[in-house]
Amino acid sequence: MAKTIISAALTGAVTPKSLTPHIPITPKEIADDAIRVWKEGAAIVHLHMRNDEGRGSLETARFKEAVDRIRDNTDLVLNLSTSGGGNVSDEKRFEHVVTLLPEIASYDVGTFNWLPGGIFANSPDFLRKCGRALIECGVKPEIEVFDGGMINAAMYFLEKEEGILQAPLHFQFVLGVHGMAKAQPQVLTQLHSMLPAGSTWSALGVGAGHLPILYTAIAMGGHVRVGLEDNVYYAKGQLATNSQLVARAARLIREFNNEPATPDEARAILGLKKR
């Protein structure tokens, strides 16, 4: 029976409590939610941290508090974000990763306009520094793909510059961000067709694109990401919890005659060493 990895993106760097009371903000809230989604079938948790005002933070101490609690209570695969901390140095964006040594860290391989008003900057110099640091400490990059050009950018670093990325690559399709690739099944199938042989991949749809991409990724044999970072509703007008979103993903995977991967099965699929 095929195994499908569920990754839970618990909080992100932006969504406020005023939008949903279920968004975890403090390291303890984030860790407690991680324990809950693990019990529902998540194999990976994708972690951002927040500061005291609820904004994104890359402070190592905040990550450590959540990471220690998660490691003490689960065998989850940890995926730490390298974005969402405001205007900080390149090195600060991955300082917590090289200190805490998760199995995975996000690797945002392109710069773009995050509409309506933001610029998500990921310079070539940052990507070189981050890629080398992740290789040196044995952390697998999760290549975040917001449109097809980002696959080409990843292939450039894999093929043209030594020591930045190593095959096999793992991609996370992030579909439905305003101004980037739409969260539509035909878009996902096109992006999937561009991947290099031997790659692994997961997909998510933002907001209303959540369910179309969830169904399509499962049907295509890919892995999935769900959680309040990407979508705060379970159904129209009904706010979700992270646990509800993971439980639904697990149910749908079983209805496709697959099984949610355990954390150790996820490690085997992605070629990760347990920390």
Overall helicity: 25-40%
Radius of gyration: 17 Å
Can you name the CATH architecture? Alpha-Beta Barrel
Integer tally of domains: 1
- Globally, the shape reads globular
Number of helices: 9
Series of secondary-structure elements, N-terminal to C-terminal: EEHEEEHEHEEEHEHEHEHEEEHEH
**Major sheet: order of its strands?**
2-3-6-7-10-11-12-13
Q: Give me the CATH fold name.
A: TIM Barrel
Would you count the extended β strands for me? 16
Low-confidence stretches: none
User: CATH superfamily name?
Assistant: Aldolase class I
Largest sheet entry: 8 strands, parallel, barrel
Estimated share of beta-strand residues: 15-25%
Mind telling me the CATH class?
Alpha Beta
- State the end-to-end distance: 27 Å
Please characterize this protein's 3D structure.
Helix content is 39%, strand content 21%. The chain has 9 helices and 16 strands. It is of the alpha/beta class and 275 residues long. The strands form 5 sheets. The protein has an 8-stranded parallel barrel with strand order 2-3-6-7-10-11-12-13, surrounded by 7 helices. The radius of gyration is 17 Å and the shape is globular. The protein has one domain (3-270): Aldolase class I (TIM Barrel), CATH 3.20.20.70.
Gist of the model:
With 275 residues, the chain is of the alpha/beta class.
Q: What is the topology?
A:
Elements: E1 3-4, E2 6-9, H1 27-40, E3 44-47, E4 49-50, E5 56-57, H2 60-73, E6 77-80, H3 90-100, E7 104-108, E8 112-114, E9 118-120, H4 124-137, E10 140-145, H5 148-160, E11 170-175, H6 185-193, E12 200-205, H7 210-220, E13 223-226, E14 233-235, E15 238-239, H8 242-255, E16 259-260, H9 263-270
Parallel strand pairs: 1-16, 2-3, 2-13, 3-6, 6-7, 7-10, 10-11, 11-12, 12-13
Antiparallel strand pairs: 4-5, 8-9, 14-15
